[in-house]
Specification:
With about 190 residues, the chain is mainly β. The longest helix has 6 residues. A hairpin with a 4-residue loop joins strand 1 and strand 2. It is elongated and about 60 Å long. The chain has three helices and twelve strands, in the order ββαβββαβαββββββ. The strands form two sheets. It has a six-stranded antiparallel barrel with strand order 1-2-5-4-3-6. Strands 10-9-8-7-12-11 form a six-stranded mixed sheet. It folds into two domains: about 90 residues, RimM (Elongation Factor Tu (Ef-tu), domain 3); about 60 residues, PRC-barrel domain (SH3 type barrels, Roll). One of its GO terms (cellular component) is ribosome. It is found in: Cytoplasm. It comes from Rhodococcus erythropolis (strain PR4 / NBRC 100887). Keywords: Chaperone, Cytoplasm, Ribosome biogenesis, rRNA processing.
Length: about 190
């Protein structure tokens, strides 16, 4: 399975440097000088190899210089390029509570009483933390976002293909927070 570890956001300067959005927990390894990256444009399948010539942090962003990319025009041509690895290249985690995103995608999500909620379609990474995007099953279809925290996600079994959750009251309610369904008996009508 192909996993994205970075995306070229834009060029930087006139000497061919690239601003890369990092999508890996190990950027110092993936983008080390001398590393060979495989990249492709979105919606294309042909991979091209790029060798990292230089890598540096600049204001919290990763800047890369690749062999053969020597000016702004070359760098602009790579805008949107996705750097990918094959999931078989990943080392297994030593931590039983640590998972790669692709390991969680597709797992069945159930409540602690066994009631099926849906399946994980994506792991979203935000400043506030990770969220599991769940495609609901049953009468209440649609997408559900569940914070990927121990207080809610009680267990994950890759072997069994199950994520068990114990959500707080209202989290699974599709009308939670919808003021149009609230009781209007306290209005100021005289």
């Amino acid at each position: 399975m192909e996993l994205v570890v970075g995306r070229v956001a834009k060029s930087h300067g006139i000497k061919g440097e690239l601003v890369v959005e990092v999508r890996t927990d190990e950027p110092e390894d993936r983008f080390a000088v001398g590393s060979v990256l495989r990249g492709r444009k979105p919606r294309e399948s042909t991979l091209k190899s790029y060798t990292v010539e230089a890598a540096r942090d600049h204001s919290g962003r990763l800047l890369l210089r690749l062999e053969g990319v020597s000016d702004r025009g070359d760098a602009d041509a790579l805008r949107g390029t996705l750097f990918v690895i094959d999931s078989s290249e990943l080392e297994p985690s030593d931590d039983p509570d640590e998972f790669y995103d692709h390991e969680l995608e597709g797992l069945k999500v159930v409540l602690t009483d066994g009631t099926e909620v849906g399946s994980v379609i994506e792991v979203l990474h935000s400043a506030a933390g990770e969220l599991l995007s769940i495609r609901r099953t049953g009468e209440t279809s649609g997408e559900l976002l569940i914070p990927f925290v121990a207080a809610i996600v009680t267990s994950v079994s890759i072997a069994d293909g199950v994520v068990m959750i114990e959500p707080p009251e209202g989290l699974l309610d599709p009308d939670f927070g919808d003021k149009s369904n609230s009781d209007n008996s306290n209005s100021d009508n005289d």
